[in-house]
Amino acid sequence: GPCYCDQACARTLDCCHDYAQTCPVIPCVVSQWSAWSGCAEPCKTTYRVRTRHVIQEPRNGGEACPALEERAGCVEYWTRQGTECQQSLVPALITTGGFGKARKKRAAADGNERAGYCVEFQLVAVTPGCLHSHHSYTRWMLYLREGHTVCVECQHPALHPTSQLCHGDGTGSQRNQLLHWQAVGNHRCKGTWRRIRQLDACSCPSVHSFLFI
Question: What parts of the sequence cross the membrane (predicted)?
């Protein structure tokens, strides 16, 4: 009689003699990923999306289809109308203050050295990932401890040419508002802080001095 493509026969051991030829296993086939979308919302840490679609459904016990949507972290610093986000909403990207010496030398050589400024913050929350910074270029993250006051310097080329501010410096934030920061070089090292004040020059110990990127 006719051979029916019922994969249960593989378990009950009563498949037709020509089952494998008549009912070949066909796995799911999906398209390539689409391009990434824009951020779901501007001016905040959110996500972007990419999708793919099913070209061939699985048949006869073939491999099931994989996920058809993927999300990734995303930040956009511009509104849908093209204006810059408020500084307080932009997460600050920071690195060790020791990097500033080489940066200042390059800026002076290029004739681009501008007067910067410094912002004092009190660290409120620090992720455990900051303590797992074993590479020599990430050891500075060990000095990011909850409750400590840190100085973060804004200098060329992080200074925005128009506003003369650095992204994420907390300008315009409300008193005691929690602001977000992210350490460059270790995506697991991030946290929140409160802006204390802006200074014309940094006065913190060198281990607690950092730079806006």
Answer: none
Pairing of strands 54-56, 29-30: antiparallel
Span 139-166, mean pLDDT? Answer: 84
Question: Rounded mean pLDDT of 121-146?
Answer: 83
Cα 99 to Cα 101: distance, rounded to the nearest angstrom:
6
Q: 133 near 126, Cβ under 8 Å?
A: no
The domain spans of the chain are 89-212
Query: Which residue in this structure is represented by tokens 């310097």?
Result: 153
Query: Beta-strand (E) ranges in the chain?
Result: 29-30, 46-51, 54-56, 69-74, 92-96, 117-126, 149-154, 178-183, 190-199, 209-212
> For residues 28 and 67, is the Cβ–Cβ distance under 8 A?
no
Q: Give which of 125, 118, 121, 126 is closest to 186, Cα–Cα.
A: 126
Contact 45/180 with Cβ under 8 angstroms?
A: yes
Q: Which residues have CB under 8 Å from 136's CB, separation 6+? A: none
- For 42-73, how does the pLDDT look when each residue is reduced to its tens digit (9 = 90+)? 776 678 899 999 999 998 888 899 999 998 87
| SS3 label, residue 179 | strand
Q: Look at residue 106 in the predicted model and tell me its pLDDT.
A: 47
For residues 71-95, give the mean pLDDT. 71
Whether 94 and 167 have beta carbons less than 8 Å apart is answered as no
